[in-house]
Specification:
The protein is of the alpha+beta class. The protein has three helices and four strands, in the order H-H-E-H-E-E-E. The chain has helices spanning about 1-5, 35-50, 65-75, and strands at about 60-65, 85-90, 95-100, 105-110. A four-stranded antiparallel beta sheet has the order 1-2-3-4, with helices on one face.
Length: about 110
């Protein structure tokens, strides 16, 4: 019986370290941004849902408090916004994120006009 199991690979062996995926990149955050525990969770999840290029610093975080006002300013971007969504302003993009479902709702590039 031992001879039969000697040649069978162990399916529970840990993969070699060099075969593991690289850790998620950390997001550069401006000193003016307050990082709450919930925001730490969002920043941990965000790189798995969205490409954030090196140097694309998070410069501002706000919460949706008036959906109608935001939709009047940018109907396309805020089309699916709900109260409590986060608006994450990066140097190169703006992200609408819903923390209760841990989902990116919308993304738009920052225009040169801003």
């Amino acid at each position: 019986m031992d001879q039969l199991t000697q040649n069978v690979p162990d399916i529970f062996e840990m993969p070699e370290q060099e075969n593991l995926p690289p850790p998620a990149p950390s997001i550069e955050v401006a000193p003016s941004v307050t990082i709450t525990p919930e925001m730490q969770d969002i920043l941990r999840i965000l790189p798995s849902q969205l490409l954030i290029e090196p140097g694309d610093k998070l410069t501002n975080v706000s919460t949706v408090t008036d959906v109608a006002l935001l939709r009047s300013q940018n109907p396309t971007f805020y089309k699916n916004a709900v109260l409590g969504d986060y608006i994450l302003q990066f140097d190169r993009q703006t992200v609408l994120f819903r923390s209760n479902t841990l989902q990116v709702i919308n993304v738009e590039p920052v225009s040169a006009e801003r």
